[in-house]
Amino acid sequence: MKNSILIFTLFCMLSACKRDYDKSKLGPEVIVVPESFTVNGFSANPSTFVNLSLEDPYFTCTMPQRAEFKIVVTGLLSGAQKSISGTGDFIGAENSTWTGDSDNNYMFRTGEECSVELSFHGATKKYYDTLTITGENVYPKTTLIQSFEGITFDKNGPNAATYGNYFDAPDLSKTDIKTDKLLKTCQGTQSVSFDGVDVNSGYYIGGMYFYPSSGYYTFSGYEPDSVYLNAFVYSYGDNSAVLNFSFSEDDNGDGVSNSTSEDEWTSGDVPVNGALGWSIISVSLKSFLDRNSSIGNGILNLNKITGFNMNMNAKVAGTRARLNVDYLTVTYGKPFNP
């Protein structure tokens, strides 16, 4: 009897305790709609034709109750995909605006049609619409160095010198650097292919250089640790290659760079994801080392960069190396993210 009274007293005391809940520590809202849940008027706005460089599309529909939704936009040519999730009692510009970005390593293309799928947590029924991309996304704080679109070259073609591909002489007979339309690209319809054999076991096989149309590449207003060189890189799954980037400066302001008297900065070997497929590499310019430190002024001047070089090296001396590169950019503030 005494034990029963004690247990009852403890229960009353615990029940009377005030409970304070910190809402910030609660998990996300979860709403499961009934299977019979239906919506009306799902559509893309302001039009099913969208220029991502000029406008941010959004989606609308009316709903009978508050619900969790997910919208998936898929490029039917590019394979780019974007998911937009939210919770609300309606879908509109406030909770479904899309800025043209992608969740994977592919970018939406001009002229492609996209499927749009809407689903709700708890209901199996899905709703569909289409979008046509009339203009590709423009990425803020980004300088495009080369997209490899609209050009054609290989080591023997008439445009070889124009687009700056060069080779380690002993490896030339077994190496080519050329534009490639066969491989599915992360942006546009073609990339550049590097494929060669390190005949003389010196690691270096070949590369490309990129010069501005006039003057210098200028990245003023930013510190080197917030400026990034970025590239999409395709690995064939053999983990055979590494990339090396460098850039030259015009220290004395005479309009040209001189490797015998001015700074040249190098990234050293940049590892490439060895898994099959595309990945993004980003290198802060702060991490580049001055290989002419004894003859240049030793100051990284972001206003007088005369050009970039991109070289492919064999990961293992004396072996074949291959990869593709696409959409070479410089970004400010953070690495490139499609």
Query: Biggest sheet, in brief?
Result: 6 strands, mixed
Task: Characterize the quaternary organization of these chains.
Answer: single chain
Shape estimate: elongated
Annotated CATH homologous superfamily of the largest domain: Galactose-binding domain-like
Low-pLDDT stretches? 6-11
Number of strands: 18
The CATH first-level class of the largest domain comes to Mainly Beta
Salient structural properties:
Jelly Rolls, Immunoglobulin-like, 338 residues, elongated, mainly beta, 18 strands, six-stranded mixed β-sheet
Secondary structure elements and pairings:
Elements: H1 2-16, E1 40-45, E2 49-51, E3 58-75, E4 81-91, H2 93-96, E5 113-120, E6 127-135, E7 142-146, E8 165-167, E9 176-180, E10 191-197, E11 204-210, E12 227-235, E13 241-249, E14 264-270, E15 277-284, E16 289-290, E17 305-314, E18 320-332
Parallel strand pairs: 2-6
Antiparallel strand pairs: 1-3, 3-4, 3-5, 5-6, 7-18, 8-11, 9-10, 10-18, 11-17, 12-15, 12-18, 13-14, 13-17, 14-16
Give a description of the structure.
The protein has 338 residues and is mainly beta. The protein contains two helices and 18 strands. Strands 1, 2, 3, 4, 5 and 6 form a six-stranded mixed β-sheet that branches. A hairpin with a 6-residue loop joins strand 5 and strand 6 (127-135).
Describe the structure concisely.
By secondary structure, this protein is mainly beta.
